[in-house]
Amino acid sequence: MTNQSIDYSPPPQKEPTRRDFLLLTTGALGAAGAACFAWPFIDSMNPAADVLAQSSIDVDLSPIPAGQAITVVWRGKPIFVRHRTPEEIKAAEQAPLNELIDPETDQARVQKGHDQWLIVVGICTHLGCIPTGNKPTQNRGKYGGWACPCHGSLYDTSGRVRRGPAPLNLAIPPYAFVKPTLIRIGTKEVAHG
Amino acid sequence: MDSVTKIVRWIDYRLPIFSFMDHALREYPTPRNLNYWWNFGSLAGITLVLMILSGIFLAMHYDPNTHEAFNSVEYIMRNVNFGWFMRYMHANGATMFFIVVYIHMFRGLYYGSYKSPREVLWILGVIILLLMMATAFMGYVLPWGQMSYWGATVITNLFSVFPFGEGIVEWLWGGFSVDAPTLNRFFVLHYLLPFLIIGVVILHLVALHQHGSNNPLGIERKEPRDSIPFHPYYTVKDLFGLGVFSLVWAYFIFFNPDFFGEPDNYIPANPLVTPPHIVPEWYFLPFYAILRSIPNKLFGVIAMFSAVMILFFVPWLDRSKVRSAAFRPIYKWVFWGFVVDCFILGFVGAHSPDDVYANLGGLSNQFLGQVTTLIYFAFFLLALPLLGLYEKTRPLPTSLSTPVLQNMNKTPAMILFLLFSVGQLTSLNASDTPPLPHQEWSFLGPTGTFDRTDLQHGFQIYKQVCATCHGLEHVRFRDLAALGYNAEEIKAIAAEHRVEALNDTGDIIERPCLPTDKFPNPYKNEQAGRAANNGAMPPDLSLMVKARAGGANYIDALLTGYEATPPKDIELAEGMYYNLYFPGNQIAMPPPLTEGLVTYDDGSKPSINQMAHDVVTFLAWTAEPELEARKRLGYKVLIYFIVFTGLMYFLMKRIWARVE
Ligand code: FES
Predict the structure, then answer these.
(1) Fewest CB within a 10 Å sphere: which of B7, B96, B100, B110?
(2) What was the pLDDT predicted at B450?
């Protein structure tokens, strides 16, 4: 066997030839094809159709006593549904905005006319632990909302972070009042897909 | 020198990965005269990579547990994004892989690529084939359908012929039958073996690059001009081949995905009932035929294993000094005869041993199998050694570059001859049912879609008639959106059904179904179903159209094939009904459709035939809800590969113009 073969490489050329054009086109086509081919595999790791379809749950508010919260599961996440007392509402409304880590008014976090109901995603915005404080007997921290057991973040009665390390307020899931005592969390309808 | 080059140099000095790739994929001197049969090596490599890729993503969703395996495959098909694409790609990929590898091996046999100094190269290839067979077999078990289960049972039982066979088989099973431990270990091994294959493929390539490729003339290269660099000549040729190959593969994925599959594998595994015809996947059929043609368990198994193992000895069985069949006038014919023999063996394997061939003078399938088995071994044990001694070969050319007087290329003629000989075989098997009448179906053909009115009517019939006894366990109410119902309608339909649920105090209550629920089963459990139906469990209908040979035509024929008065010579058993198309003609299901049974929304009262047509359309949809999306995507993919292949062809012609 031989290791030298003759040089079949093209002679040096001055201007772009038809072959360069052909090469470029094929290269572009190949790259586009590879990208399209990768997509089904990447997308297969996204939530499957049935997971997406678990998009809404109804929660009956009537059994929740004032001063307490319950946890419901929506899309695999804990949602805190809290029945606030008038004092808690007042404390939340009167907190000075400039003292907040993530400034937001209480009105922006509840629905108009339903001040007593605070609905938040019960996941600490630091690194994902579940804060305590749904029951009055649990540690609620000095702001009366929730306290995260992992690294000590504290939340107030509006679910706003008042002491770090968490950077953001507890998130608000999409929800709507169907009746004054019934909410639907996750209102998007997902068809078959 | 720009910084990228610098980094490359720095690494390469310490780890010569770049010079290695440069040598292996770019400058690697390759014979200038390789024909298209040499494309299949690279195709096999690419297929291996694609199989591993699709397999890894499937494994992310698959559940190797006997209760969930079948359902998780259906879950992949129906819920995972592009799940049907990945599964059909993987299932048809096994077929593609074997086609490519078999052609690659036949190529080696024809051109004598296993002869000195390439014996080890060939042996490594046979090891890859063995690993592939093991991998494919275990992969076929994973969907946990009837064929999976019984295939696993039969193949593992082969080992019972060896000394301590019982012990070996129980060790393979991890129990006293194929069961949960078997499935779990097969899954693990099915995931592991492809990586071993990669290892052997690397050795195969190292061995290949040691002496370079063989070539159609079968003589060694002597002058520098006999060789050309691998890139761009063979990269572009391989890419062109890849384009053509992708077209074929894509056709099966998108337009005929169950072509190579068995309907029975859409029935969940049942350890108590063996399907009437069990056959392995097509790529094992010749070996299966050899196993069956020998009427002795021990010798049958030995013959089957020998049929593969004999490949290891081919480099020494073939005594001819001349490599390429182009210069071996007798071997050339013997070779094509051997190819035909392999095809016939495959055909024999696919049919019952009791079948007979009318156009071969009433020859039995069993006998045909024995003759072809004999020819199979005679090729290796007689033809290869003896031809080497007695064949008068034609003079060899002196170099690759001296033009050889090619007599007309006979390959296409040979292939036609091959197809013709196999096509001559039509087996007759005694059947108790007449051929199925053919119906017009809106969803058939490459552009077919489900007729929405038929679907909705069919659903109404399912709801009012079939649902009393038959479940639809893989379908969720929200899936009905595909029938044209809106969210509110689906909610209302779901709420008509009830499922069991736990309330806050832990009691079992019944609540109305939600759109995300599956169709509830009409019976609480299998025992209840059997008790209510004379011992016969009404099967789930989700996959029925895919799970019966004949598909939609069969279900339609069954629904309309009842006869109130059976022929005189038939004695109906207690509680059975006479049906022209049901295997055995006696069916436990009473005639489900009667004139005037339902009224459609438009006020019409459908005939029995119309009702059957509508409900079968609906069931075809429950079996293949992805059908429309699949064909739509299929067209885009086909167009892409047509353009890709065309461009590659032009590029190849231009690049090769310099050599020719
Ligand atoms: S996760 Fe809550 S404070 Fe760190």
Answers:
(1) B7
(2) 93
Q: B595 an active-site residue?
A: no
Cβ-based contacts of A190 with chain B (< 8 Å)? 478
pLDDT computed for residue A191 by the predictor = 38
pLDDT digits (tens, 9 = 90+) for B260-289: 989 999 999 999 888 888 889 999 999 999
* Strands A77-83, B363-364: pairing kind: unpaired
**Residue extents of the structural domains in chain B:** 1-31, 32-270, 279-311+318-399+409-428, 452-628
For the segment(s) A52-185, the CATH number from 3.40.50.1950, 1.20.58.110, 2.102.10.10, 2.60.40.1120 is 2.102.10.10
Active site residues of A: 151
Structure tokens at B248: 């074929």
Q: Per residue in A27-42, pLDDT tens?
A: 898 899 999 999 999 9
The mean pLDDT of B195-201, rounded to a whole number, is 97
pLDDT in tens, B297-347: 899 999 999 999 999 999 999 999 999 998 999 998 899 899 989 999 998
Q: Please determine, for residue B402, whether its predicted confidence score (pLDDT) is greater than 70.
A: no
A148 lines ligand 1 (CB under 6 A): yes
Burial class (CB in 10 A: 0-12, 13-18, 19+), B260: middle
Site from A50, A70, A74, A75 to mutate, B interface, most B CB atoms within 10 angstroms? A50
Please, are residues B89 and B54 in contact by the beta-carbon 8 Å criterion? yes
Instruction: Kindly list the domain boundaries of chain A, sorted by start residue.
Output: 16-46, 52-185
Quote the minimal CA–CA distance from A167 to chain B in Å: 34
Q: Are B150 and B274 in contact (CB under 8 A)?
A: yes
Residue of B85, B211, B658 lying closest to A8 (CB–CB): B658
Residue A59's CB is within 10 A of a number of other CB atoms, namely: 19
Residue type at B542 in one-letter notation: S
The answer, for A37 touching chain B at a CB cutoff of 8 Å, is no
Strand partners, A154: A147, A163
Q: What CATH number does domain B279-311+318-399+409-428 carry, 1.10.287.980, 3.90.1150.10, 3.90.226.10, 1.10.20.10?
A: 1.10.287.980
Give the CA distances from residue B50 to residues B44, B125, B203, B633, in Å, rounded to whole numbers and listed in that order.
10, 19, 20, 19
Task: Outline where B533-624 has alpha helix (H).
Answer: 551-560, 608-623
Let me know if domain B32-270 sits in CATH 1.20.810.10: yes
- Residue B407 in this model has a pLDDT that exceeds 60: no
B264 burial via Cβ count (<10 Å: 0-12, 13-18, 19+): buried
Overall average pLDDT of the B383-411 stretch:
77
- Are B481 and A192 a contacting pair at CB < 8 A? yes
Q: Is the pLDDT of residue B408 over 70?
A: no
pLDDT digit string (tens) for B602-622?
Answer: 888 888 899 999 999 999 999
